[in-house]
From TrEMBL:
Residues 250-259 have a biased composition (Basic and acidic residues). Residues 250-289 are annotated as: Disordered. Coiled coil: none annotated. This is Peptidase M24 domain-containing protein. Belongs to the peptidase M24 family. InterPro entries: Creatinase/aminopeptidase-like (IPR036005), PA2G4/ARX1 (IPR047113), Pept_M24 (IPR000994), WH-like_DNA-bd_sf (IPR036388), WH_DNA-bd_sf (IPR036390). Residues 271-280 have a biased composition (Basic residues). Pfam families: Peptidase_M24.
Amino acid sequence: MVLNHHDLVKVEMGVHVDGYIAAIGTSFVVGASPTEPITGPKADVIHAANTAIQTALRLMRPGNSNYTLTEAYSKIATDYGCNMVEGVLSHEVKQHVIDGNKSIICKETFDQHVEEYDFAVNQAYLLDVMVSTGEGKPRETEFRTTVFQRALDVTYNLKLKASRTFLTEVNRRFPTLLFSLNNFDDQRNARLGVSECLKHNILYSFPVLAERPNDLVAQFKVTVLILENGTIVATPVIFTPEAYKTERNVTDEGVKKTLEIPMQTGPAPKKDKKNKKKKTKAQEKKQDS
């Protein structure tokens, strides 16, 4: 694939250390800069996505509902003349678990919704926001996916030796998290194995989705930790607002007030208990004298 000047690009990546997951995603236009800013729908959709994720980060506080974010998303997308993308979920993550039961939905529909709950201390999320200039209803494309995940609750005695060899390697190297066919040296055996595993529901596949040809989609993804000292953005939002000029703005007063809340980028400093004890003892001595 060759990128052209002014193409809208989405980049996403993730890592894990001993099963603890962090991910990051950003959108940008090739060639965009403060000296040569982008205008029009591309600027609108990127600003909408950035505003949505900035608002979400400030709403992810203990006691707030996950649907507080979904409602804010809808207002922001409307202000920028866009739509939130259907089917996009932000999951709570735990060790070796990338798709926990608690989740935030970008756009609620008649047949797409999640259970409502309140955020709590010591939760971690992969916060994913996608905004479209189109209907926000991506469709499966003709491109073959290369990303899969093991279905832990399904077992089956595979017939082909190549499939059994492939599944053994999956269980050893990728027992819980997503993997790509590019991770395997023997591509032929991997494709044979994937085919039989999918046939018997041993793997989940992640199809390649896209909006209509002329529609634009912008995405931002960050890792968020809700801690006792505050909400921490573990992977930053990468965005240069000066490189994108839009005539649209947020109009909802509630969203405006939310965006004024300062965002903590690191853990709050811990109180020095030792110094506090020393000061207390010194004060007691003064009082005695």
